[in-house]
UniProtKB/TrEMBL annotation:
PANTHER family: MANNITOL DEHYDROGENASE 2-RELATED, MANNITOL DEHYDROGENASE DSF1-RELATED. This is Mannitol 2-dehydrogenase. It comes from Pseudooceanicola nanhaiensis. GO terms for molecular function: oxidoreductase activity, acting on the CH-OH group of donors, NAD or NADP as acceptor. Pfam families: Mannitol_dh (PF01232), Mannitol_dh_C (PF08125).
């Protein structure tokens, strides 16, 4: 059955379909970066509200700012912006069709259609999932990267920008002039203080071309922090085959685990849906939830993905089933990450670790170590280095975290232990492979990348075990090194 509005009433009986009138939905949100995660997470929460007869004026308009986004737009528009979500529960798979998205803005150079749509007074929230590394943050200072070519371009051409942030600023300029007022700018990426990071990027970029507009954005727009959580694998041949097993022809289905969490700061300048009625949590403790998730889950992903890739272990579930990699995960988390994480309502750090252990081990989730290892140059500084700094500040062990950093250095050599080549898997891959090759003889070369490690290369309590582990990995192999750590 081809997925479309016309066929919703004819879907197979075991597939849940929207019960609301999609023709009556009205847009309220533009979401930029419409990948699998957004459709399985934020769009799902809104869909649940619509199923309950509310939020009919908060429908999503999708958007993208890169040329490759046009391909996804074509697929989704051909099926009326519907998505089949398949939940991969070990006790049994289930499927539902989500209809909270009603349009996808044409992807054009200069982003004229996107700017016009965001300038529409009906749009009250502009949300983003553009990856952790997509916010133009200077790696060394954590400030705004004003000298990045994209930012230089958008500052010089504010009416025909290259980036999502330039387009948002252009739309806000129109809204200020028309009296439409501000919209809420909502980051949904895995960044500590993601709302604050988005504010920094948007206001700083606006200030380069229009200081008065920058002041207005800073004063009138809101930038709520949030923590998002759901494991959502990439879609490939297996997922396309799986949706056909449910009797649906969907060219862009999404699989996901049987867990979701969304914690949001309640700071919306132009209204919001009642996402809490669908299970989201509004809290003034978002930072604590973020820290727990980023350190234990996202950090844990990096702990297992890099050695998994080096050892040719293809999936996260398979890595968790490998006794040495799972042993590394449990020991590093329990001894060097969890002790520095405060509890949040509903979870102690230790209980959250047990939850993550179960989620990562879900055999139905074909999440690849390659996907999780992607963009280590953003993820290690964001997810691993803070735990290293906490450990050093408290005089606590960092031996395991030093080993984790060494596995990243070994991974970035670009050759697995079986001799196969690691295809480029980081925006800075060429630079990383060059430094990794140098670090094979001089481990200190890796920690010399101050944009990622700051002064950690000068702190013997971390630098010495890092060098020891990296030399051992090259001399004895990853398995023997993991044995040595676990038995040490």
């Amino acid at each position: 059955m081809k997925l479309s509005d016309a066929n919703l009433s004819n879907l197979p009986g075991r597939v849940a379909a929207p019960v609301y009138d999609r023709a009556a939905l009205r847009p309220g949100i533009v979401h930029i970066g419409l990948g699998n995660f957004h459709r399985a997470h934020q769009a799902w929460y809104l869909h649940r509200l619509m199923q309950a007869g509310t939020a009919q004026d908060w429908a999503i308009v999708g958007a993208g700012v890169r040329p490759y986004d046009a391909g996804l737009r074509a697929k989704l528009m051909a099926q009326d912006c519907l998505t089949t979500l398949i939940e991969l529960d070990p006790s049994g798979k289930s499927a539902e069709v989500v209809g909270a998205m009603i349009d996808y803005v044409p992807v054009e150079e200069g982003h004229g259609p996107l700017i016009a749509r965001m300038a529409d007074p009906a749009i009250r929230i502009v949300s983003l999932t553009v990856t952790e590394g997509g916010y133009y943050i200077d790696a060394a200072t954590k400030g705004f990267a004003a000298d990045h070519p994209d930012m230089v371009h958008d500052a010089a051409h504010p009416d025909t920008p290259r980036t999502a942030f330039g387009a948002m600023i252009a739309a806000l300029k129109r809204r200020r002039a028309s009296g439409a007022g501000p919209f809420t700018c909502q980051s949904c990426d895995n960044l500590q203080g993601n709302g604050g990071v988005l504010r920094q990027t948007l206001v700083s970029l606006a200030r380069l071309s229009d200081p008065g507009l920058a002041d207005w954005i800073e004063a009138e727009c809101s930038f709520p922090n949030s923590m998002v959580d759901c494991i959502v694998p990439a879609t490939g041949p297996n997922e396309l085959a799986l949706v056909r097993e449910f009797g649906i022809e969907d060219t862009a289905p999404v699989t996901h685990e049987n867990f979701r969490q969304w914690v949001i700061e309640d700071d919306f300048c132009a209204g919001r849906p009642d996402w809490d009625r669908a299970g989201a949590t509004f809290s003034d403790r978002v930072h604590d939830f973020e820290t727990m998730k980023i350190r234990i889950l996202n950090g844990g992903h990096q702990v297992i993905a890099d050695p998994g890739e080096v050892m040719s272990v293809a999936t996260i579930a398979a890595a968790m089933a490998h006794p040495l990699i799972h042993g590394l995960f449990r020991k590093v988390e329990s001894e060097e990450i969890v002790p520095h994480v405060a509890p949040v309502p509903g979870y102690s750090a230790a209980a959250y670790l047990d939850l993550i252990d179960t989620r990562f081990a879900n055999p139905e989730i074909a999440d690849t170590t390659r996907r999780v290892a992607f963009d280590g140059s953003s993820r290690h500084p964001g997810f691993i280095v803070p735990s290293i700094r906490d450990g050093l500040a408290k005089g606590a062990p960092v031996e395991g975290l030093a080993l984790v950093s060494a596995t990243w250095a070994r991974y970035c050599l670009g050759i697995r232990e079986d001799g196969s080549t690691v295809e480029p898997n980081d925006p800075h891959w060429e630079m990383l492979t060059g430094v990794a090759a140098a670090a094979k003889e001089r481990p200190e070369a890796w920690l010399g990348m101050r944009q990622f490690y700051g002064d950690l290369g000068e702190q013997a309590a971390f630098a010495k075990p890092f060098a020891k582990w990296l030399r051992m990995i090259y001399a004895d192999g990853m398995e023997q090194t993991l044995h040595a750590y676990l038995n040490g």
